[in-house]
Design brief:
single chain, 232 residues, alpha/beta, TIM Barrel, 8 helices, 8 strands
Length: 232
């Protein structure tokens, strides 16, 4: 595994569990608003010291940590992601996977093999604007397949979208709502600028924008919520 970062404790990223987070190298998308740009453009580590540190952490914090969040980048790019998740499970920890949904075959295998307990899939935008939003040519049929896999309910899941003023409209969220209609959990999280984003200069939606976005989605996903904002 190409582990480029390790967060030793999180109380927020794995619902219901005390967890740690591993950040994998590489992504097949180039989203302008990505906060982990170093994982996309940086050169992968030549050693496995971070992975060694990770396994030591799990041993040291048995009884404290309950789960592991595997994020990125895009974790399903890793050739040995299945083996990695299997080792974590054998040690008695739950596994949460963050994914962009572009590898439905791998996602299906991990779900059906019981290698993941929770999946968070990013919905980047309405399907018509996926290429514009991700900066690459996207197979939207793969995205729809991953959505269908999660909606089948064989694993706990959430969908989420980072809302960016320059990229999203209420109409886009209407289309997102149609795509994930009936989802158990969907979150709109507001973009926050930082030095780590891939393309600086983007802006966060206004409170009024966010209200229009959530209202559009709720027509199809009544459980939709805003995350990381005081707007209700």
């Amino acid at each position: 595994m190409r582990i480029e970062g390790l967060q030793k404790l999180t109380l927020l990223d794995f619902p219901g569990y005390v967890a740690c987070t591993v950040f994998t190298h590489g992504c097949n998308f180039r989203c302008s608003f990505c906060h982990n740009s170093g994982l996309i453009n940086g050169i992968p580590s030549a050693d496995d010291s971070t992975e060694q540190e990770f396994w030591k952490l799990l041993e040291k914090r048995k009884g404290v940590l309950e789960g592991v969040v595997i994020t990125g980048g895009e974790p399903l790019l890793q050739s040995n992601i299945e083996r990695f998740a299997e080792q974590i499970k054998k040690k008695g920890f739950k596994v949460k996977l963050d994914t962009n949904g572009s590898f439905p075959g791998k996602l299906r295998m991990m779900i059906e093999s019981g290698l993941v307990d929770y999946v968070a899939m990013d919905i980047k935008n309405s399907l018509e604007k996926y290429n514009q939003t991700t900066g690459v040519a996207v197979d939207t049929e793969a995205i729809k397949c991953s959505v269908s896999l999660l909606l089948a309910g064989k694993v706990s899941y959430e969908f989420r979208t980072t809302a960016v003023k320059e990229l999203h409209t209420a109409d886009d969220f209407t289309e997102i709502g149609k795509m994930i209609q009936g989802a158990e959990r969907y979150f709109i999280q507001c973009y926050k600028d930082s030095e780590e984003v891939l393309l600086p200069g983007l802006t966060a939606p206004s409170t009024e924008d966010l209200q229009s976005y959530i209202a559009a989605v709720k027509q199809y996903v009544p459980a939709a919520e805003l995350r990381g904002t005081q707007t209700n």
